[in-house]
Amino acid sequence: MRRAFLLLLTVHLAGCSSWQVQPIAPARLIETERPDRVLLTLHDGREVIVASPRMDGDSIHGEVQLGPDRAFHTSEVDQIAVREEDDRSGGIGVMAGALGLIVIAGLVCFVGTCW
After folding, report:
1. Nearest to 64 by CA among 53, 78, 79, 74
2. Sign of the CA dihedral running 73, 74, 80, 82
3. What digits encode the pLDDT tens for the residues 102-113?
4. In angstroms, what CA-CA distances link 114 with 45, 93, 105, 110, 111?
């Protein structure tokens, strides 16, 4: 039963959000939206997740995974993306969760007494 719960939780959480490329300039996005994290796609194809991004002149500063604060000049950035809720996958997660609860309730009733 614990495995089923963990599987359902993983499926639900994995489908709740995704990176969405933003059609505005990185500086404007960071200054107006103030996102917790951004995904930068650089000219050389690398993708870097920057936590607590902030602008300093023409550079995006922030914490990168497993490293100190880094700065990326906006001219290095091809795209900037933020995490957004995905309504479709969230709905699928809710349906999968409900189905999982029904299956677990059925198993409990099958092995023991329901009422």
Report:
1. 53
2. positive
3. 777 666 666 666
4. 56, 26, 8, 8, 9
